[in-house]
Amino acid sequence: MQITLLQGLLIALVVFICSMDKHMETFMWFRPLVVAFFTGIILGDVKLGLEAGAIAELSYLGLLTVGGTVPPDPLFAGLMTTVLAHTTGCDVATALGLAVPFALVGQWIGTATNTFYAGFLPAVDRAAAAGDEKKIGRIMFTGWFLYSFMFAIAAFLSVFAFQNGIKAFVDSFPEWLVHGFEVAGGLMPAVGLALLLVVMLKKENIAYLLVGFTIMIIANCANILPVAIIAGCIAFVVFNRDVEMNKQKSASASNEGGEFEDGI
Questions:
Q1: How many Cβ atoms are within 10 Å of 108's Cβ, its own excluded?
Q2: pLDDT class of 257 with cuts at 50, 70, 90
Q3: In degrees, to the nearest 5, what angle opens at C-alpha 257 toward C-alphas 251 and 260?
Q4: How far, in Å, CA of 189 to CA of 145, rounded?
Q5: Are 91 and 225 in contact (CB under 8 A)?
Q6: What is the pTM of this model?
Q7: φ, ψ dihedrals at 66, nearest 5°
Q8: CA distance readout (Å), 112 to 33, 63, 66, 105, 229
């Protein structure tokens, strides 16, 4: 299916807003699930947007910026997974594999703009020395605007200007290669979840993982929502318990400190 000029402009606007939020991390709109959802609304296929966003979100869950390492961009992954599935008619798993080069384009844009930001540092230092907070804010927002504008331009070119060329290029792939992208796209959510577990999994959380896995195996259902609700309830209970324990520790420390002072 073809993407119209209006749809291309709207998608570019969404990408611009989500890219701005990527710096602020206020609403987490830069995540693949949100970007794909908005893209699905613009393309008139919300179901496709949610499907593409869900599989892209799982795949890019564990990709974190560590030191100088910049991972493939999750925003472009969610966007192009939806767009490629819409324009080429392939399933979302295949589109996820095909979207990897575009995620790398987002990575390159991020690296280039971050390098360009280095030129702003002397002006920031001078403004900080002068105590000019407003100028520091203007410089920061200028950098964010340039970053988001570059993303919006790249998104417009990818989803509208070059859509015919991209579709023709994908259609030229032999069947075995398309199947390879489908297999790779199917594996990526498992890899993303495994990367997330490497970061988050601790010995005290293993029991929760095994409980959820056991429930899914016994229930033998494709709907993960009940397990998510149970996990949310457990997280709420554990959070309240930890808060109460911290309060008790603080009160105990205050009492001990008071007794010591009275002794003096």
A1: 13
A2: low
A3: 145
A4: 32
A5: no
A6: 0.74
A7: -120, 115
A8: 25, 19, 17, 11, 41
